[in-house]
Amino acid sequence: MKQSNLYAAFVVTTMLFFSVQTNAQLQTPEGSQRAQVMQRVGITNITIDYGRPSVKEREIWGKLVPYGYNNLGFGTSTAAPWRAGANNNTTIEFTHDVKIEGKDIKAGKYGLHVALNEDGGATIICSKDSNSWGSYFYDEKKDALRVDVKTKEASHTETLTFLFPEYEANSTVAALRWEKKEIPFKIEVDVKNIVMSGIESDLRNSPGFTQSNWDNAANYAFNAGELDKALEWVNTSISGSFFSKETFGNLSLKSRILAKQGNTSEAMALVDKAAKMGNVTQVFQLGTGLIGQGQKDKALEILKNNVKNNDGAWPSNFGLARAYSATGDYKNAIKSINVAMTKAPDRFKPRLTGALEKLNKGEDIN
């Protein structure tokens, strides 16, 4: 091999060696371990990712974590808030638009910072920059949201922890706890509109080719109080599409929608139609649902037929007892309960016994 070729081979080998050395990185534990916590509100995920420093007998507030905005002596920021954790940005991510302390913020991932005040207040900052190290490069111009909150005294938490100590159907409270301080902030989610918009989008795509999805959509809309949309979707399940057909489920649901809209006569006609298609348990549920709607006479009619059509199966007699009870006919209600008791499996007898005790005292079992 010529000298020039040997030299070229050496250069290539050396370059490859240094390239591997430059790109290869050892994986070792961080001094402050990384953690992630997530809370779902409705169908919206709220995720906080953060580094977890420990107190280690240090003075935290005003010392390790300085108050306000500070020049940290590195990076581009001369007025940096606290990074709300250790190492890389603490981040908070929302899969849908939400409100933090009443202020709107769009879906996405944000750097989460805190500016702490000596007087017990704090400012929560969500920055569009979520990829920086700490707060050294914090830029106020990239703020997506700022809200002021009150801090709380708390029992000692050695290692910094984010958690969701409170949650409801449409909101949650996120909180940072460290040392003897808690910094909470409320997050609200417009669950109904998010779900309804998602359903409308889904029904225009492949899920819309399945009848049960239209039933489920109509059920959600009905329970959410969106009656017109519920009626539109259940009508699609019943007729007009290649998959449409009448079922006990969609007819009984449409009857409830119409009853809620005040169209009682059409609703009761659908009840009769649905009852002919249902099994003993379904008709039991249909009849007891009518009791809840105040349609006691129709419930009694439906549940009497349920006994006849199902050879006196115990759920049908229990349903009939409830219908008699609703109309104040406790004598016949007791008779029906006693029949149900002779046929019911042992695991259901305590429930029937409790109902019988109430009837014997002259109390309604609905």
Tell me briefly what this model is.
This protein has 366 residues and is an alpha+beta fold. It has eleven helices and ten strands. It has helices spanning 3-23, 191-203, 211-223, 227-238, 248-260, 264-275, 280-293, 296-309, 314-326, 330-343, 349-360, and strands at 34-41, 44-51, 91-94, 98-100, 103-105, 108-116, 121-127, 143-150, 152-168, 171-188.
Write structural notes for this entry.
The longest helix is centred in the N-terminal third of the chain and has 21 residues, at 3-23. This protein is of the alpha+beta class and 366 residues long. Residues 1-22 have low confidence and may be disordered. The strands form two sheets. The protein has a six-stranded antiparallel beta sheet, with no helix packed on it. The chain has a four-stranded antiparallel beta sheet with strand order 5-4-10-9, with no helix packed on it. Helix content is 41%, strand content 23%. 32% of the residues are buried.
User: What's the Cα radius of gyration?
Assistant: 32 Å
Please report the total strand number as a whole number. Answer: 10
From the structure provided, what is the oligomeric state, counting identical versus distinct chains? single chain
Number of helices: 11
